[in-house]
Automatic annotation (TrEMBL):
Record-annotated Multidrug resistance protein MdtA-like barrel-sandwich hybrid domain positions: 97-234
Species, as recorded: Pedobacter nyackensis
Listed Basic and acidic residues bias regions: 351-375
Family: Belongs to the membrane fusion protein (MFP) (TC 8.A.1) family.
Gene3D superfamilies: 2.40.30.170, 2.40.420.20, 2.40.50.100
Superkingdom as given in the UniProt entry: Bacteria
Protein's name according to its UniProt entry: RND family efflux transporter, MFP subunit
Domain annotation CusB-like beta-barrel: ranges: 250-314
Cited Pfam families: Beta-barrel_RND_2 (PF25954), BSH_RND (PF25917)
Amino acid sequence: MNATPYIKKNIAALICSAFILTAIASCGDTAKTGATVEAAHDHGAEGHEEHSDALELSQEQLDAVGIVIGEIEQKNLTAVVKASGQLAVPPQNAAQINVLTGGIIRKINVIEGQRVSKGQVLVTIENQDLIKLQQDYLTAKSGFSFVEAEYNRQQQLKAANAGTGKSHQLAEANYHTERARLKALERQLQQYGISISRIASGNITSQVPVTAPINGTIGKITAETGSYAQPGVSIMDIVDNSKIHADLIVFEKDLSKIKIGQKVDFQLTNQKNEQIEGHIYGINKSFENDSKGVVVHAIIKKPGTNLIPGMYVTGLIGVGTATTSAVPIDAVVRSDGKEFIFIVDNKAEVAHEQEHEHDHKGEPEEKHKEEDAKHGKSVHFKKIEVTTGVSEMGYVQINPLEKLPEHVKVVTKGAFYLESKASGPAAHSH
């Protein structure tokens, strides 16, 4: 019997089996490798997320941009009560422009945002009924001349005991009646802005001016040339911001600390860097609606042109002094409506040093020192959100929103550079 075909068949089977086993092992190694890579990627992502708010600068970079590191100090600053509210003007510093008589608007002399003075002509109104009013005035004036002459004649007769008492009484009654009627027509014409002397000289007009009752700035104009102006319907408004003040809401728990004359530092929501000062001049004696808050009125010492009634404002009312945590004003940066400081992140530095030791493990000590001298020791910074209070003597009160490490170091100068670096693309390259 020939065994050669059988042997060949077995050898082929063995080769196929070995090939299959090798392929399976290769697939297992590939899966392990893929899992390792994925785990490393996840770990890297976690590490990036964990230190996404951290910054690293070398000592050379710190010196180049002038970054100074210091401590959070305890300063004896003014204790404050924080109150929110709105800017407003007194009623006598705001005016709605109305007409005393209906009529067609023939001319508008101002535009929105224009500064006007008291007595300046804003609008000219035309009404044909004004012609009859002026005619009535001229008629009354002419009739009063006769009545006045008769009254004077009766006065002379009475003085000479030549007249009758009844005639004198009748002349006196007519005199006072016509005089009152004439004065009423004069007053009415003056309210419309029509000159009495011009009417007396024969200049009758159907147009009357509407003047500004106060100094101020023109607001919204609701009328148009050729439209009909009705009495009681405002055609424009004027606001005088020279007396603008703040109405702040102080809640019941802080009300006992508030007194007239206390200093107030204002912060506008859209102008955080501008310093506005004032003082308390009035405290309401009733709660505002159901809020358990009382309106406190504060005068602004130097109101600027950028202050507009209705703006939201935060007032820091000084109620005494207290020792509080503070940093230089330059240490606080603002971004997206929030306030931040930068602290030295010691945990990140320790982790970096351990990673550096691991990378250079096994290298000669001389080479290790040479690398450290070449690159220099780096400093890690972390961005911390804070809220701020009163500012005095170049310092600002801070209240971190998270607990800070003991003896923490903060950036006292050059924080704006770290903020620009954190906000730029470089912050993600690390």
